[in-house]
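Lecture notes, structural biology module. Today: joint structure prediction for complexes of two components.
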Amino acid sequence: METEVLIIGGGTTGTGIARDLALRGIDCILLEQSDINSGASGGNHGLLHSGARYIFKDGETAAECAEEGALLKKLAPHCIEDTGGLFVAVEGDDEKYIADFPGMCEKYGIPVKPVSYAEALEKEPCLSEKAISVFSVQDASIDPFMLSLDNLADAESHGAKLLRNSRVTGFEIRKGTIACARVRDIRTGNTFFIDAVQYINATGAWADTVARMADAAIPMIYSKGSLVITQDRISRRVINRLRKASDADIITPGGTVSIAGTTSVEIDHLDDIRATAEEVDHIIKEGAAMVPELSTTRFIRAYAGVRPLVKKENGSGRSISRNYTLLDHLADGLDNFITITGGKLTTYRLMAEKTADMAADRLKNDNPCLTSTRPLPKSAKGEWTEPGKSPKIWSSSPTAGDTLICECEMVSESMVDRIVEALKAEGAAPDLEEVGNRSRIGKGPCQGTFCSFRLAAYLYGKGELSDDQGIFQVRQFVNERWKGFEPLVRDKELMRVELQESFLCGLFSMEHSNELMKGYDDEP
Amino acid sequence: MTNPDNGIYNVAVIGAGTAGTAASIFASQRGLSTIQLGRPSEMSFASGCLDLFSIIPGETPKFFANPWKGIESLLDRNPEHPFSKVSQKEIKAGFDAFSRFMETCGIQYTKENDANRFIITPAGTLKPTWHVPSSMSAGSAALKRKKKILITGIKGLKGFGADQMASTLKSFHPDIRAVTVQFPGREKAGDLMCERLAWDLETPHVLEKFAAVLASHTCGAETVGLPAILGVHRFVELKEKIESIIKKQVFEIPTLAPSVTGLRMKEAFLAAAPEAGIKTCSQSVKKIDMDTEGNFVFHITQGLEKERITAEHVVLATGRFMGRGLCIKDGRIREALFDLPVTGPDSRSLWYERDFFDAKGHGVNRAGIETDPCFRPLDANGDVFHPRLFAAGGILAHQDWKREKSGSGISISSAFKAVSSIRKGS
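The predicted structure, tokenised, for the full assembly:
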């Protein structure tokens, strides 16, 4: 396989780079080891920062966020809900920080307005009565899945190609130039090679892992951040704690839910990233200081992402280190390898532009970046990510005999048919995981207890599954939901888990495959 | 016996699942005036099979075709398991008494050489169990004797994928195939419910039409598997009638809740209870007090009337979290009605494994109340909480019925032992 640029990592940055390059007429392949946004791009708040969060720590980042945020609201409005945001200080918070806040915002060009408590309460009745100071800013919520899928769709329509479930396992380097990348299809286990002119490492937390394959280490710190999703939306606006950036001080609304977080826990390795019960308790306790309802509301999922932080002390001249890190790897003796990591979801486009600039320059391509002026087209790929989308479509186009597979999120057989067709067109296997990733199936209150089975049964009926694949796929599907639900099980949730286990294990014996049962009843 | 002369019941059974039902039956069989309370919705989860014991959960789970050998081996490893408090003789006596009662209600069980057998589940997996209702026994026999099986699904009936079941079972049982048919009169419906179809089939012409649809697909099969929809009341008769029309053996496969198999047990029990002298009341009990004589007192609402119930003995068969026998108070697991202490994992981080299907099972499932050898709950000091309070079923500690496939076994045997320990007028 040959291409001009091989982009490794299908997060918001990778898909953004793919679109940027494709619009410049540069041929590229996007390689993703699992699925779009399966790393930190999918494990965040979905917050389009006003920048106010960073004014004390990093003014430059703050200004970048303000500028990019405003740009994205214009260019990708369908991915954004322009909620606005509040910064709220409660009794006991640092008075000096509060006093300096509006001045610092103005210094970096971030629009800010003081809000009286009465007015704030009218806007957001969920606010604590212990609030002592409130400012409004221009935060918004953004759907990172829709954003990446739309970037990808536009990139593909301009010739870019996506390879999912494909992991780089090494590079062949000849005299300081990467000749090709060795790639494994993790579904089939087959290895193949991709021959590119430039190689871009946009793997976020995995940047060091991939760089090491090219003998170029990046000193990194992995900071895990956990978040929880509420069953119902708590506020109309983004609500930030007005204090020095700390744990659990942002609540972002998104569609029908709210997301509270985050924590910051340094971790050593990137396997099995998940939120813990302790982190969930901490988020709820801290968040409840601003919004007391958090301590009584129901939660539907906890999840975590890893912030890829590049250690500063090793940052020599080769690193252009702002909130993100762009490395040209010339000092590593490599002339066609680029790493982009760190950064914010809000500045993903800018990061993609700077990275594409470097690659285009090396390819002697003079075409300008178009992503700062051309609107991001809405695509069919992203439409299923929106909570509440399924019911809307289902109720607007009812067909007789269209059976609901997922009753919690109202996903019907005909909708699954459409997703299966789309997956096949992409060359992906229409299995439980893929259909789950592209729909709301399993994401409602039953967390897959009933719908995982119905979906498996339906896919068997369509001939998409065979042999005993279904047992393993249902287990995997349920475990993916379990990963996000287990940290939340504290009280009434025990009932739901018991119900689920009574069916899946008590009645179905799903914990054992039929293979184990062979010879079982021969014993006298 | 329904209304005791002195207004005091010998036994109040709290809970309407398998343990509560079994306890009520055993109490009435012993001539004790009995009232059973609780929402019978618990029964809608029942598969209809009576498990005894099949699997010791663990890193490497151990499977037992012979439940008695299994229990012996289990008690070596887990001497505090509820089975440690009942002898083989008592377990057998409990199952005999329970199935005898069910037989009088029309529910018959078959068992083979005292050994565990498989039933086919809607997932296409195999579940080991002990007593199989007669409506399902042809399936277990067909698996054992390698007969040609046809699994029949019904269009619009969700969660019962005939193709899924046949494909999944193929490597275990090669002679299996699947067909999905339309249910007469419900061809256009998008969502079908098992219970609705079961009521439909009680109408003779629907049954005949359905049998005719089946007959056109059964060529080459020896045994035909259907979702459990063959009637709510007249299931024995309906199954025989279909068999006589299609000239094949038929067996039912239990479905997800609300299941017809569970509904049958509930209906049969409720119908037979008055004659057996069991008063039933489908209300949950939220609070129980003591009177000056040391009897248990609580209130139920019958229509607009509030009725005071007094009982000498209570059998606590309230189940686990779903049945609301266990609850969380200040982050700790407690028993809901008497606030009895619960043995179990100390912290929340020890409740569950990361893999939902971990073969060891989850720590929280072994939590429960401690009892003396007669199943009388113990207090925090390890003393009997009340001499006339007993417990049975899922609420007991040191068991994991979902993984052991021991739900009915624990419920029936603990209910039997508890009720046997009740001395009238004591």
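Point to remember: The longest helix of chain B spans residues 88-104.
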